[in-house]
Automatic annotation (TrEMBL):
Start-end of Acidic residues biased regions: 94-108
Limits of the NIF system FeS cluster assembly NifU C-terminal domain: 19-75
Family annotation (InterPro entries): FSCA_dom_sf, NIF_FeS_clus_asmbl_NifU_C
Biased composition annotated in UniProt, kind: Basic and acidic residues: 1-10
SUPFAM superfamilies xrefs: Fe-S cluster assembly (FSCA) domain-like
Region (Disordered), start-end ranges: 1-20, 82-108
Organism: Haloarcula saliterrae
Protein name: NifU family protein
Biased composition range(s): Polar residues: 11-20
Amino acid sequence: MSAEGLERQTRNYMSNNVPQIQQHGGNFEVRDVDEAAGTATVAIGGACSGCGIAPMTMKAIERQLPESVDGLDDVEVVRSSGPRAAVMPSKTDEMEDMDEYEDYSPPF
């Protein structure tokens, strides 16, 4: 499979299985796909950045995406920068460290 195929599968997974991101005013982009390494970087931003469950969503994507896309072994989810940057980055940083988020399983 080509990197484009892996990227397309990653994008399709995000569009089809994580619709809450877009329904809630957030956005995502597939930033980088390395076919040989089986890795991808996905950035989320917009309303996701200030959302209380964004850290949980990020962890869930990192866990579920490799299980759903053939050839993908590791996913890193990062926050978008620039115009899509965090609304409240300090709050989001604090949330990522909260123990409550370790076992959260979002509804997707």
